[in-house]
Design brief:
192 residues; alpha+beta; FAS1 domain; seven-stranded mixed sheet; 38% helix
Length: 192
């Protein structure tokens, strides 16, 4: 009885694909998903559950997702000072190259304090880290992307090893949020 049921199910499945062809209609095509999993050594340091986890970040817009990630607290402070929280949370299909706290720590404290105190310069710096389109890992191998600041970012690499502007490494890439993609980087980028 069980074998008969399996044969009947197999026959019905075959008919579902054969029938459209005999009627001159294209059979459905099941393409592999274009979305990849986040990659990079820093992804392992994200919380395994909760709002700062990969699943949690996918539920929130970019700025909110970043605020739940302990490695991005300096960036979040800068975004708030520049008044960009709503801009980032309301944008659609963006890609953010998000510097870690350690990336900001590479900037001498006096220089960082000066940037944080100048809203116009801070806004220019932060919007240079945002591209107004979704960038997939395959596009990063040899890419050139216009930023919201108006400049251009370049990316090179392959597999799970990508560099932005020849110096910043993506340490956790292709992190999805509800309105964009985040690539966490180890160096703050400066507009060219």
């Amino acid at each position: 009885m069980r074998t008969r049921h399996v044969r009947r199910s197999a026959a019905l499945a075959a008919a579902a694909f054969t029938l459209p062809i005999t009627l001159g209609v294209a059979a459905p095509v099941f393409a592999a998903s274009q979305q990849t999993d986040p990659y990079g050594p820093a992804c392992a340091s994200l919380p395994s559950q909760g709002s700062g986890s990969l699943a949690g970040m996918a539920q929130d817009p970019v700025a909110t997702a970043a605020s739940n990630n302990p490695a991005l607290s300096t960036l979040v402070t800068a975004v708030k000072k520049a008044g960009l929280v709503d801009t980032l949370n309301n944008a659609k299909g963006i890609t953010v190259f998000a510097p870690t706290n350690e990336a900001f720590a590479k900037i001498p404290k006096a220089d960082l304090d000066k940037i944080l105190a100048d809203k116009a310069e801070l806004t220019k710096l932060l919007t240079y880290h945002v591209v107004g389109e979704k960038i997939t890992p395959s596009q990063l191998s040899d890419g050139s992307f216009k930023t919201l600041e108006g400049g251009t970012l370049t990316t090179t690499g392959s597999g799970e090893n990508f560099t932005v502007n020849g110096k910043a490494k993506i340490v956790c890439g292709d992190v999805q949020t509800s309105n964009g993609t985040v690539n966490i980087i180890d160096t703050v980028l400066t507009p060219m």
